[in-house]
Amino acid sequence: MVTADEWDRIRSDISFGQRFRGTVTRVPNPGVIGIFVDIGLPVGGFVDARLLPETADRWPTEGTVTEFELWWADERQQVRLKAVDPQFVTDDFDEYLAKWRPGWPDERGQAVP
Question: What SUPFAM superfamilies does this protein map onto (predicted)?
């Protein structure tokens, strides 16, 4: 756990779409919650189940090393990630993006608020 000031500093140094090589550290309920990822920051990374494939057998397993991009970071001391490798992304990502985050292409490279 980092202090609020440390978290603010970390957030000021990251941007949407920034890529990190990470290791999946935990898959607590495959197909239900999401996965925890170590990307080398003092706070944890997490990929929400909604951004992962619909079937859990396609999710990356513990120990998988792959590339992730920063999807979101807010007051919770955790970075939300999206896998870069299409095999680890929901099949309907384009539809999801159009409905829930249509500004994503323009947000890439922008500072996290």
Answer: Nucleic acid-binding proteins (SSF50249)
pLDDT bin (cut points 50, 70, 90) of residue 113 is confident
Nearest to 82 by CA among 73, 70, 91: 70
Residue 39 near residue 53 (C-beta atoms within 8 A):
no
Topology of domain 4-102 in CATH is OB fold (Dihydrolipoamide Acetyltransferase, E2P) (2.40.50)
pLDDT at 1: 83
CB neighbours (10 Å) of residue 69? Answer: 15
Residues 79 and 70: beta-carbon distance below 8 Å: yes
pTM over 0.85: yes
For the chain, the structural domain boundaries read 4-102
Contacts (Cβ under 8 Å, ≥6 apart) of 5: none
Q: Is the Cβ–Cβ distance between 71 and 81 less than 8 Å? A: yes
